[in-house]
Design goal:
With 110 residues, this protein is mainly α. The chain has 4 helices and no strands. It has 2 domains: 45 residues; 50 residues, no CATH class. Helix 1 packs across helix 2. The longest helix is centred in the middle third of the chain and has 19 residues. It starts with a helix and ends with a helix.
């Protein structure tokens, strides 16, 4: 997991798990090894649960569902607005970007 917040979170989760299951320790002399095993397993679970957030690269084909004949001015305005929206979305953190994409493109509300 390296150094940083991910490792800190794994240690904290491991410590909470260890506190919940401290009664399961059979040999008090082996608490150190048991605690290391708990943190190692917690880290492995966090790494397995890590999912890559989808990027915006594959969504360029999306366009408004406007069935009216388009005027050149309207097309230019739509393309400019779409570019502005994509640029603004790329500035969001990955979690917020994912929530916005799910809400807007798939209709997920919760």
């Amino acid at each position: 997991m390296g150094y940083g917040p991910d490792a800190d979170d794994a240690v904290q989760d491991g410590a909470l798990t260890a506190l919940r299951h401290i009664g399961d320790v059979r040999d008090p002399a082996a608490v150190g090894a048991w605690l290391r095993a708990v943190v190692r397993n917690t880290s492995r679970m966090r790494l397995r649960a890590t999912r890559e957030t989808p990027g915006l690269d594959g969504l360029d084909h999306l366009h408004p569902r406007d069935h009216e004949p388009a005027h050149p001015e309207r097309l230019i305005e739509q393309h400019a607005m779409r570019g502005w929206i994509w640029d603004a979305m790329e500035e969001l953190p990955p979690q917020l970007r994912l929530m916005l994409m799910l809400r807007h493109f798939s209709g997920i509300t919760s």
